[in-house]
Design a protein that fits this description.
single chain, alpha+beta, Aminopeptidase, 8-stranded mixed beta sheet, 8 strands, globular, binds coenzyme A
Length: 191
């Protein structure tokens, strides 16, 4: 079922004249939107270039086959649309006792306008399990984004344990990543 949550918002146009209508919506990504999702992920992932360790950077950052295999492994994506154009995507992977946030990306030109916040709020409404997210240790802006949403970094030891338990990544990626967890996780007394 397609779930949509439209918003209407007015922004002054460039000439400062009357407001133009913006229709924003969050809904699951559609089968024919994989290419657009790829474009957004690989555009937004440019932020990592020159920041994460060079041996961890690949171009394209997310090959098509990898995205398809992630989706086949149960990563479900929400997309944020503004006037019918997808500006951001955020995936989630339900693993029973926890849900992972996987692959959160907002077009470079649309970042820091609240798109990621709205995607995360929408995802949270649909999930009752503790949320975990892994990202590059060097991606300070992403850490800041999640901290602003109430997530906290887990300890290095717990990070290694969680990445081993819930993610399928290389030892090198484990070494260069961090994990943040939401309040539900910490409230369960797991540190
Ligand atoms: C991280 C990301 C998904 C957040 O989405 P967004 O729509 O830009 O975020 P929002 O506008 O909802 O929230 C903005 C907050 O995120 C953080 N943030 C996001 N991008 C930032 C940047 N380039 N510089 C500094 N802070 C940034 C800040 O805390 C910011 O709050 P502020 O503007 O009040 O300082 C998006 O910026 C992105 O795609 N970044 C590149 C890829 C990436 O790091 N993905 C995360 C994978 S886990």
């Amino acid at each position: 079922m397609i779930q949509s949550r439209p918003w209407l918002a007015g922004f002054p146009n460039a000439a400062g004249r009357p407001f133009r209508e913006v229709i924003a919506m969050i809904r699951p990504i559609q089968a024919d939107e994989v290419e657009i999702a790829l474009e957004i992920i690989n555009d937004a992932a440019q932020a990592y270039k020159g920041v994460i360790p060079p041996d961890c950077w690949e171009e394209p950052y997310m090959p098509r086959e990898e995205l398809l295999s992630e989706m086949a492994a149960g990563v479900n994506f929400l997309s944020f649309l503004e006037n019918g154009r997808i500006l951001g995507v955020m995936g989630r992977q339900d693993l029973g006792e926890v849900t992972l946030i996987r692959h959160a990306y907002v077009r470079t030109t649309a970042q820091r306008r609240g798109v990621g916040t709205r995607l995360l709020a929408n995802l949270r409404q649909e999930v009752s399990q503790p949320l975990l997210v892994g990202t590059w240790a060097a991606a300070w802006w992403a850490i800041r984004f999640y901290e602003q949403q109430g997530f906290k970094l887990v300890s290095p030891g717990e990070k290694d344990r969680l990445l081993g338990a819930y993610w399928t990544i290389s030892p090198r990626q484990t070494e260069t990543s961090v994990v943040l967890a939401d309040e539900r996780w910490f409230n369960q007394g797991r540190l």
